[in-house]
Design goal:
473 residues; alpha/beta; Amidase signature (AS) enzymes; 13 strands; globular; Amidase; amidase activity; EC 3.5.1.4; hydrolase; AS_sf
């Protein structure tokens, strides 16, 4: 481990357990890296410096006593849509948000595993867009190319992990918001089965399309964080059967049938797959074939799945806008989406929710022929800072759909998906590919991702050293 960049979760946990390093040293290193890059990368909304040091000291006392927990003393970050006791949950919004009284369930479980929460990472306003920019907190930048976005809405978590500020972080994924920034920053991003990681105090986040997920540099780290955060609040409506996903790392998945799907789901906006991304995804398909899997081109029968997404997404925005301390401060695009959500919140929303079962059956029949799907995560490399944020209204939606048409159907279905790095495009910008599976398929997706990682060694590549912000005189 070096002071410049965080080691991974697995390595950090081992070093702590064997007494090679203290939690205080790890947390102090993370806080120093955050401070040094906050003026340039701007990954964090809230840094819990004093509280994190105190928690690290408590973890060191526990380690010295011989106690062991899955993440005891390990520093991690969480996205600023998750409640951390004593901190506001602004979710990218302007306004005076009060501190919350209790941890959300996912944060509670991380603490129960022994993790130290060093801070809350930036996200765009209510997680709506695939960029992390806004007047409440500024621009979060991509460590690989600071002139470009790390994606969104979990862009702060992705930037923090990609730059090595922390070894791993939680994000949330409502239309690709873990997988898209993982793609654009060269990370593993796991969107698990709906309910795998609780979104409590929201039993269903955005009418069930948003789930919490993990971002890390390696498959093993992402799976370890997933296991630590997994579990349910007593009042959660979705309670999938328990899994230990980390056990699948290194497990032979056997010979699988994999559908290579390059065609975007139907949208009202044309979407064209960038030729370099197509080439990178096809190269991954060839690697999977070389590993012994049967890979053939085939597209899921998505049909008009988009008609089921919009009512759920906009109704969810309307619910969150009602919670904002001053809705007048919100972006006009947010207020427009909330108005649409109120219009669609009756019969259209109920119809959209009923359609999920139909989609499960139809796409389930496709997945009876294939074990999983390989698809691009995005259609385009990461845009420049401001390219999407400065747009307004319909222009934002059109640009967003054109760049990111592939991820959101799996949010409607509620099934697992996982981004793996696919290489680079557009002059050294990271891009990714998705492994998509049926319900409760996280172990299978993780085992295949780990196969690819062992061959391609993507975790050995780092972005340039993060630039330090100039210190005030």
């Amino acid at each position: 481990m070096t002071p410049d960049r965080a080691a991974g979760l697995v390595e950090t946990r081992r070093a702590l357990a064997e007494g090679e390093v203290t939690s205080r040293a790890l947390v102090e290193g993370a806080l120093a890296r955050i401070e040094a890059t906050q003026g340039t990368l701007n990954a964090f909304r809230i840094v819990r410096a004093e509280a994190a040091i105190a928690e690290a000291d408590a973890a060191d006392r526990e380690l010295a006593s011989g106690a062991r927990r899955p993440l005891l003393g390990v520093p991690v970050a969480v996205k600023d849509d998750m409640d951390v006791a004593g901190e506001p949950t602004a979710f990218g919004c302007p306004g005076a948000f009060p501190p919350v009284a209790e941890d959300g369930e996912a944060v509670r479980r991380l603490r129960a595993a022994g993790a130290v929460i060093v801070g809350k990472t930036n996200t765009c306003e209510l997680g709506q867009w695939p960029f992390t920019e806004g007047p409440a907190f500024g621009d979060t930048r991509n460590p690989w190319h600071p002139g470009h976005t790390p994606g969104g809405s979990s862009g702060g978590s992705a930037a923090a992990v990609a730059a090595g500020l922390v070894p791993a972080a939680l994000g949330s994924d409502g239309a690709g918001s873990v997988r898209i920034p993982a793609s654009w920053t060269g990370l593993i991003g796991i969107k698990p089965q709906r309910g795998r990681i609780s979104t409590w105090p929201h039993g269903e986040s955005f009418q069930g399309i948003t789930v919490n997920g993990t971002l890390a540099r390696t498959v093993a780290d992402a799976a370890l964080l997933l296991d630590a955060a997994s579990g349910n609040h007593a009042r959660d409506p979705h309670r999938p059967p328990a899994l230990t996903v980390a056990d699948a790392v290194g497990r032979d998945p056997g010979r699988l049938r994999i559908a290579l799907s390059l065609k975007p789901p139907f949208t009202a906006v044309p979407a064209r797959l960038h030729p370099e991304i197509r080439a990178r995804v096809v190269e991954l398909a060839a690697k999977l074939a070389a590993l012994g899997h049967d890979v053939e081109e085939a597209d899921p029968p998505y049909g008009q799945i988009g008609l089921t997404f919009v009512p759920r997404a906009t109704a969810g925005i309307a619910e969150r806008v009602r919670e904002a301390p001053d809705p007048a401060l919100l972006d006009p695009r947010t207020r427009d989406a909330a108005r649409l959500g109120r219009l669609l919140g009756g019969p259209p929303l109920r119809a959209a929710r009923r359609a999920e079962a139909v989609l499960h059956r139809r796409i389930g029949r496709f997945l009876a022929r294939y074990d999983m799907i390989l698809a691009p995560t995005t259609a385009a490399p990461p845009p420049r800072i401001g390219a999407l944020y400065r747009l307004r209204g319909l222009a934002t939606d059109r640009a967003m759909i054109a760049a990111c048409p592939y991820a959101w159907p799996w949010n409607v279905l509620g099934w697992p998906g996982l981004n793996v790095p696919a290489g680079f495009a557009g002059g050294g910008l990271p891009v990714g590919a998705q492994l998509l599976g049926p319900a409760d398929s996280e172990p299978l997706l993780v085992s295949v991702a780990a196969q690819l990682e062992a061959e391609l060694r993507w975790h050995e590549r780092w972005p340039p050293e993060p630039a330090s912000a100039p210190r005030a005189a």
